[in-house]
Amino acid sequence: MRVGVLALQGDVREHVRLLKEIGADPVAVKTREALDDVEGIVLPGGESTTIGFLLEKFELMDPLRKRIEDGMPTLGTCAGAILLASRIDGGDVPKLGVLDATMHRNAYGTQIESFEDDVDVEGAGTMHAVFIRAPIVEGVGEGVEVLATCRERPVVVRQGNVIAATFHPELADETGLHRMLLT
Ligand code: GLN
Fold this sequence. Notes:
Layout: E1 2-6, H1 12-21, E2 25-29, H2 32-36, E3 40-43, H3 48-57, H4 61-69, E4 74-77, H5 79-84, E5 85-89, E6 99-104, E7 115-121, E8 125-131, E9 136-140, E10 145-150, E11 153-159, E12 162-165, H6 176-182
Parallel strand pairs: 1-2, 1-3, 3-4, 4-12, 5-6
Antiparallel strand pairs: 6-9, 7-8, 10-11, 11-12
The structure holds glutamine.
């Protein structure tokens, strides 16, 4: 499966490496043409304000939203998860709004509050989760499944073709969510 990794900012290389490891065909997506050519997409971690700004600047926001709404398998990690949400607290982030959830940016605290933990993900097993200035999922709509929680908060959620994780599976070599994307 040809899977795009949105390559405007953030930890693109780590996702590309993981996707190769599980036998997918990863492609860095920076243009409309590249977007049209992929069958699934990963939105990496990084800085959601920057990625959102660049999505608009390069006129990728609307076409990407359309592809996701049309059912393209999509995985967002951390900043990528924020961009997917319909409601974002803690900053003015241009958003895709395809996931019925409220994400509160940087709500666990500053960089020194970043943490790691093991989480059980429904359908993907236990994985080591690295949270770096992660958002808190403050609420999800009725059509959203919570696949994992940590410290009493949802940390992996799914709405149909859209999967969002507030941590970085790609930094801990955890392939479960990427495999879920391919199936
Ligand atoms: N704090 C970042 C944001 O709000 C997300 C951090 C990350 O992706 N690790 O975009």
